[in-house]
Design brief:
single chain, 303 residues, alpha+beta, SH3 type barrels, Alpha-Beta Plaits, 3 domains, 3-stranded antiparallel beta sheet, 10 helices, 53% helix, elongated, Putative mechanosensitive channel protein, transmembrane helix, LSM_dom_sf
Length: 303
Amino acid sequence: MSNSKIAGLLWPAVLCTVTVLVYTFHADLFRRFLPGWSPEAFRRVSAALSFYAFAWLVGRMATATLTRRARRKRKTPRLLRELITASLFAVATVAAIGLLLGQTAGGIIASSGLIIAILGFAIRNVLADVLAGIAIGVEAPYRIGDWVGFDATTRGRVTEIGWRTTRILTPNGTYMILPNSQISRQMLTNYSAPRKQYQGDLEIVLGHDISIAEGKLLLYEAALNSMPKAGLDPDQTPRVRAIAYAAEGVTYRIKYWVPQFSDSTDCRDAILIAIDEAVRARGLRLPWLDPRCPPAPVNAEKT
C-alpha cells in the first residue's frame, strides 16, 4: 500500500480512536476537567462524532479496496465509490440525529416522510436519473474508458459516469452528455467487455469467373495480410463464408478481428484496400461490369 493511501486511512483511524476513548471515559474526563458541564450531552456528541468517524474510515477503506481491484481489472466508476461514501454518511447522520434528539432512526424517517414525498415529486426527473446512475454504478455495464454504443448514431468512449449523466466522446470528437435514465431504457453494446478485441464483418460480391473455394482463399489471404498484428492473439484470424449464390455473383461474408473499437474504421479500410488489390491483380471482373450480368433496372417514380 502506498504512503498516500496510508495517510488517507490514518486520520480517520485517529479520529475513530479519539472519539471512542472520549465516549468511553467521558465521566472521568468531566469530573477532572469540566465539572460544571453536562456529561450526558457530551456523551451524545462524542457518540455522534464517532458515527461520522467510522463512516469516514469505512468509506476510505472501501475506496482503497476498489482502487486496488481496478488495477487488475477495468477502472471502477467514481460513482460507485461516491455512492458507498454517501450511503455511509447518510446512515451516520440518521444515527447521530436520533441519538441527539433521543429518538430512534425509524421515528426520524417516519416524521420526515411527508417532506421526502414532496421533494421526491418536485425532483422526480432528477431522482430518476440519480437512481439510474446508482444502478449503473452497482451493475457496472460499462466503465471509464469503455467504447459503447446505445443506438446506430450514439457511440463513443466513456469519459465520466456521474450521478445524473454519463459523458462520452464520439469517434469524431463530439462530446455527448446522456441522462442516466435514458441510458437505462436503451439497449447497450459494450465493445470493450469482456475484452477489447471484437469481430467486425463486411460482405463482398465476386463474379462467377472464380470458384467459391478460390474466392474464399483470395478474400481470406487479403484479410489476413491486412489485419493488424499488435493487440491481437495469434489464433484470432479472419473467417470467410459464402452466404448467397445469385446470377450477379457469390456473396461472401468476411469476419475479421479488431484490436479495439477506435481501430474499427482503419481496419475496415485496410481490408477493403487489400481486397481491391487482390481482385485487380487476379484480373477479375466486377459483377456489375460483367456483360453477362447486367445491372438490375432502377424504378423511378414519375413526377
